[in-house]
Design goal:
This protein is α/β, with parallel strands linked by helices. The protein is built from 27 helices and nine strands. The chain has three domains: 2-425, no CATH class; 426-520, no CATH class; 542-634. Helices cover 65% and strands 6% of the residues.
Length: 638
């Protein structure tokens, strides 16, 4: 089916001139990757303090690793931390050694993983389309580079990738290793198919026959080693295992297995991959640390990591993280916004149910199918899992970006001689999806204008909603999304289909720069800065024998910023009980320090003679409990 395509002549000529000059096209591509990488993951990376609850757990465990020289067993707050394997701790500790212990170093491994993934995604899409041009004996560099640029832009600039790429936890490093391993697998798979086709041509086969037979014909054995892309896949898979455990090989294994079974290529490709050698490489790189940590910690590590953090998370609800079956439909819609609107059409466009069609395609042209199976496999895997968290589906975001980019590749001009584009689906579906895009952005605009009523109350940041209103961020956000919606409606009416994704990208970047980042600074000033300030006070006033306890909540940032162990006590009742027990010891310290909020402090109803308020920062206060002045009969338990 063909659609009329309206393209501003100046813009078209500009893109065509760049694409026709290879050196210039490569330079512009590199500058594009640097730009989106810096906006998404470099700009203000370390300007905001660590965010409770999870980020400081990794940051402090890595600091302890560097401080103690124990690179095997992670520790937090004086106790072993078996939640995750060691790779992120190692990366953060190395960053500390080079750049110092700071927020920027904490987040650097996540940011580098995101940028590396985006760059490899750009290369893979561009390479696949270059092979398509070769097969079709055409030269369409404009389409090729624009599609790769869209894939990289959409992959880098979406809420899910931004959140975890700027946070010092293991999710982005896992996604970077796993997704890059999958992309390397595809490049190795397609490269072997291309080499097989070339050998058949040299043997007397025609070019046409070679292209069509590539998917089902095994290559002639020529090396004991797999190609370099397969080797990179194995190394990155080992990295994923060292980042988050068995899921690092289970998910890529499911995706690759489903892809090869669908194409009927399983035995052929496994031989090409030299799978036995690959398993040796993966185990050789990943198993030594697991063996050492188990040797040192024994059954406690096995039960905690493999039992609780892997098996139980898949089969049971852990830490109350339950959700309905449709949870990830909502998460993908919101955290891959605004491009998520086009995912149904991008998947439908592939017609993945036409198995014979895909089996007859050259391997290099099966990237869309591979991304589709990748997306569905990750989505299904975590939908089945009982424990559900938004970060779990982060590994499907690169596949989603590739799907959306290939949808747009149909909408970019095929050549300078035509103003029409060919699509393989009813044009009404594109129009409906685009109008849904307009409705979605309009809804975001309305929600932004009413953000005060939509945001919940946070005891730790009671004035945050009002501050958003006072500085006008809600108004800026509302007008931004409204202008974006109107712009896309205009593009639909003028049939500038190819420009719609550009407006979505631009709107998201503007939102990130002028709304999200200022809002993060506001939240940090109100919610996290007081804890950092109290941590500094603790470091100054704590006496050598004093214990520091936190009552009623758990804020691990205090451990990281104060460099002191904290006794986390979940409730005021247990806090009073702990004070009573310390006071009744035969040999007791002269005092202890207590961090709590004002509400919990007054709830404890301590006698004024028994404590001294040292400092109050925001919603938190630091108090010294003096046991020398305290008479045991006056210690209240309720």
């Amino acid at each position: 089916m063909r659609l009329n395509l309206s393209v501003p002549n100046a813009v078209e000529r500009w893109f065509n001139n760049i694409a026709k000059r290879p050196a210039l096209a490569v330079t512009v591509s590199i500058l594009w990757l640097i730009l989106i990488g810096w906006i998404g993951y470099g700009w203000h990376l370390g300007s905001i303090g660590l965010v409770d609850e999870t980020e400081p757990l990794f940051a402090e465990a890595s600091r302890q690793m560097l401080l103690t020289g124990d690179w095997i067993t992670p520790y937090f707050n004086g106790q072993t931390r078996f939640d995750k394997p060691a790779l992120l701790y190692w990366c953060q500790a190395i960053a500390y050694a080079v750049f110092g212990v700071n927020e920027w170093a904490v987040r650097l491994p996540s940011a580098l993983a995101a940028v590396g993934l985006v760059a490899l995604g750009f290369y893979t899409v561009q390479w696949s389309l270059a092979k398509k041009d070769e097969l079709e004996q055409v030269t369409l560099p404009t389409r090729r580079y624009l599609t790769a640029a869209v894939a990289a832009g959409v992959m880098a600039l979406n809420p899910q990738m931004i959140v975890w790429g700027r946070t010092g936890v293991s999710d982005m490093l896992l996604t970077g290793c796993m997704a890059c391993a999958l992309l390397c697998f595809f490049l190795g798979y397609a490269t072997d198919g291309q080499e097989a086709g070339g050998r058949r041509q040299e043997a007397g086969g025609s070019s046409e026959l070679s292209s069509s037979s590539t998917p089902s014909s095994p290559p002639t054995p020529h090396s004991l080693l797999p190609n370099n892309w397969y080797l990179a896949c194995y190394v990155l898979t080992a990295g994923a295992i060292l980042t988050k455990g068995p899921v690092g090989i289970v998910l890529p294994g499911i995706i690759i297995l489903a892809f090869l079974l669908y194409l009927g290529q399983l035995r052929t490709v496994l031989r090409e991959m030299r799978l036995f050698l690959g398993i040796i490489i993966i185990l050789g790189l990943s198993i030594p640390w697991y063996a050492l940590v188990i040797w040192r910690n024994g059954e406690s590590y096995i039960n905690s990591f493999f039992g609780y953090h892997n098996v139980e998370r898949f089969t049971e609800v852990v830490n109350g993280h339950s959700a309905p079956w449709y949870f990830y439909f909502v998460i993908v819609l919101l955290l891959f916004a605004p491009y998520s609107i086009y995912l149904p059409l991008a998947i439908f466009r592939l017609k993945f149910w036409q198995r014979s069609h895909w089996r007859n395609q050259a391997r290099s042209q099966q990237l869309g199918l591979f991304a589709c199976i990748w997306f569905i496999s990750v989505f299904s895997f975590f939908t089945i899992a009982v424990t559900k968290l938004p970060s779990y589906v982060l590994p499907l975001i690169p596949a989603a970006a590739i799907l959306v980019a290939f949808l747009w590749s149909d909408l970019f001009p095929g050549s300078e001689q035509t103003s029409k584009i060919s699509i393989t689906y009813p044009s009404s579906l594109l129009q409906v999806s685009s109008w849904v895009n307009v409705i979605f952005l309009s809804a975001l605009a309305v929600a932004s204008f009413h953000i005060y009523n939509l945001l919940g109350y946070d005891e730790a940041a009671p004035d945050f909603r009002q501050n958003l209103q006072d500085v006008g961020l809600s108004t800026i956000s509302g007008w931004l999304w409204l202008v974006a919606a109107i712009s896309i409606a205009f593009l639909i009416l003028r049939r500038y289909w190819h420009s719609i994704v550009g407006v979505n990208l631009l709107a998201f970047v503007v939102f990130l720069i002028f709304v999200t980042m200022p809002a993060m600074f506001l939240m940090d000033q109100e919610r996290q800065l007081p804890l950092r300030q109290l941590s500094s006070v603790i470091d100054q006033v704590k006496q050598p024998t004093e214990e520091v306890m936190m009552v009623g909540f758990k804020k691990p940032t205090v451990v990281f910023y104060s460099h002191k162990n904290i006794n986390f006590i979940p409730s005021t009742e247990k806090g009073l009980e702990h004070i009573h027990n310390v006071a009744n010891q035969e040999v007791k310290p002269s005092s202890l320090l207590m961090v709590t909020n004002k509400k919990n402090f007054f709830k404890m109803d301590l006698s004024p003679d028994n404590y001294e308020n040292i400092d109050i920062k925001g919603a938190y206060q630091l108090t010294r409990i003096n046991f020398k002045k305290m008479k045991q009969e006056k210690v209240k338990l309720s």
